[in-house]
């Protein structure tokens, strides 16, 4: 389609403006006057439309030139759609079947047309409702391991990986949100912060803890300068859509090259927050479901390890840890894999603790806690979450694994 000046779509203008795009007409129907359009964006940043017609439905996601959550006082570059598009194609190649397929991309309009996932529901909603998803841990563990391994120089040719790093290095403003909201704001009195009344003693303990803040800043330095693999960058339970038995990952606009433990660490934090919030949503019945959530964390991490080790043994084609240094000399490379995994878990648990902090203390909170109406209950549950987060950051070098983390979570009840 010819290049045209960016203009935000609306429910009213979408059929006329996108009616000539084959990828949409072939998925929805040739006559745009028969399309029905619904705006469903529940995220903080973008417009998302479901476009339906006689043949079927597609999703149209369009970036807005500002942060939707805040308004046009906070501008944000449209180029993030370009990075989201390139992230989706790489995730589809590295972890087949894990993301919606892309049907069309228009860089000028900052829009992506993609497969409509149905009857998928955002996982965070399912977790609040107490619903289980079969195969969730295997899906998530494999997604994180495959994207981490196959996006790194354990697997990729260095020239390809370096050119990818340089492509995604242009995504500056979006990771900057993470650098501020996730890694920095929770630990000082930043302007956009807010937290539940009653948390003040825990908050001031965190801000008074210099060694903890040093560890968080070390992790930020690593996030900003360690380009070991392509990370999703925003892998919380609102970026996962599930049916009772299948799941997909969406919304990788925060993509960048970063530490291999970043995505799985953020993911585990969101399960831990679901865990801590459950007593307010399930009451006396919470315990069984909480046990399921912890089992998902343990199994996701176990699958991640197993899949990473499998890829190490079968797909180690990059310049790192070459067979010439190990297998070709009749030696075992398992100790090397152990060491790489230890570094991944160290970063993962540190990121996990930081994510647990920022969701209660800085700008963008999560519905798991936000939907708790009783502020006293909410403060008590959020305090547990903040304290475990601090323990994970402090102990990230010495944790024996997800089982130990889940035991620590249980100890807060
Ligand atoms: P944002 O970047 O603004 O957070 P998301 O990509 O997370 O936007 O999409 C916002 C919402 O739109 C999701 O929470 C989900 O409900 C819906 N959505 C997005 N992509 C799809 C899809 N491929 N299929 C079905 N629903 C989708
Ligand atoms: Mg989103
Ligand atoms: Mg969002
Ligand atoms: Mg997003």
TrEMBL record:
InterPro entries according to UniProt:
Aminoglycoside_PTrfase, Kinase-like_dom_sf, Methylthioribose_kinase
Top-level taxon: Bacteria
Q: Which residues form a coiled coil?
A: none
EC no. given is: 2.7.1.100
Domain annotation Aminoglycoside phosphotransferase: ranges: 37-287
Presence of the UniProt keyword Oxidoreductase in the record: no
Q: Which UniProt keywords apply?
A: ATP-binding, Kinase, Nucleotide-binding, Transferase
Q: Which residues form the signal peptide?
A: none
The family database entries (Pfam families) matched by this protein are listed as: APH
- Return one GO MF term: S-methyl-5-thioribose kinase activity
Query: Self-association or partners: how does it assemble?
Result: Homodimer.
Q: Which family is annotated?
A: Belongs to the methylthioribose kinase family.
Q: Which PANTHER family match?
A: METHYLTHIORIBOSE KINASE
Name of this chain's protein: S-methyl-5-thioribose kinase
Q: Which organism is it from?
A: Hoeflea poritis
Q: Which lineage ranks, top first, belong to the organism behind this chain?
A: Bacteria, Pseudomonadati, Pseudomonadota, Alphaproteobacteria, Hyphomicrobiales
Q: Which gene encodes it?
A: mtnK
């Amino acid at each position: 389609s010819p290049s045209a000046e960016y203009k935000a779509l609306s429910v009213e203008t979408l059929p006329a403006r996108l009616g000539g795009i084959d990828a949409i007409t072939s998925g929805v129907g040739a006559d745009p006057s028969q399309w029905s359009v619904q705006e469903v964006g529940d995220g903080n940043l973008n417009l998302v439309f479901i476009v339906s017609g006689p043949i079927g439905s597609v999703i149209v996601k369009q970036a807005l030139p500002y942060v939707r959550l805040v308004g046009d006082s906070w501008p944000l570059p449209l180029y993030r759609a370009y990075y989201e598009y390139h992230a989706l194609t790489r995730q589809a190649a590295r972890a087949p079947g894990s993301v919606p397929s892309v049907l069309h991309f228009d860089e000028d309009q900052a829009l992506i047309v993609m497969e409509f996932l149905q009857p998928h529901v955002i996982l965070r909603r399912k977790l609040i409702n107490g619903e289980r998803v079969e195969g969730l841990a295997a899906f998530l563990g494999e997604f994180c391991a495959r994207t981490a391994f196959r996006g790194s120089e354990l697997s990729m040719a260095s020239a390809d990986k370096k050119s990818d790093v340089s492509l995604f290095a242009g995504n500056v403003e979006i990771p900057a949100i993470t650098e501020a909201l996730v890694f920095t704001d929770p630990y000082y009195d930043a302007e956009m912060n807010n937290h539940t009344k009653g948390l003040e003693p825990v908050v001031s303990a965190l801000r008074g803890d210099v060694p903890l803040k040093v560890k968080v800043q070390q992790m930020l330095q690593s996030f900003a300068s360690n380009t070991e693999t392509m990370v999703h960058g925003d892998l919380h339970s609102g970026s996962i859509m599930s049916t009772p038995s299948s799941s997909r990952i969406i919304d990788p606009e925060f993509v960048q090259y970063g530490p291999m433990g970043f995505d799985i660490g953020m993911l585990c934090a969101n399960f831990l927050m679901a865990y801590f919030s459950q007593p307010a949503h399930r009451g006396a019945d919470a315990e069984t479901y909480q046990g399921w959530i912890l089992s998902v964390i343990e199994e996701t991490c176990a699958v991640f390890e197993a899949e990473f080790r499998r890829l190490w043994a079968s797909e180690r084609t990059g310049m790192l840890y070459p067979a010439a240094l190990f297998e070709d000399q009749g030696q075992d490379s398992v100790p090397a894999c152990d060491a790489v995994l230890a570094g991944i878990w160290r970063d993962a648990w540190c990121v996990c603790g930081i994510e647990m902090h920022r969701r209660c203390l800085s700008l963008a909170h999560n519905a798991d806690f936000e939907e708790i109406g009783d502020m006293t209950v909410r403060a008590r549950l959020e305090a547990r979450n903040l304290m475990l987060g601090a323990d994970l950051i402090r102990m990230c070098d010495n944790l024996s694994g997800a089982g130990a983390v889940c035991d620590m979570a249980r100890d807060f009840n």
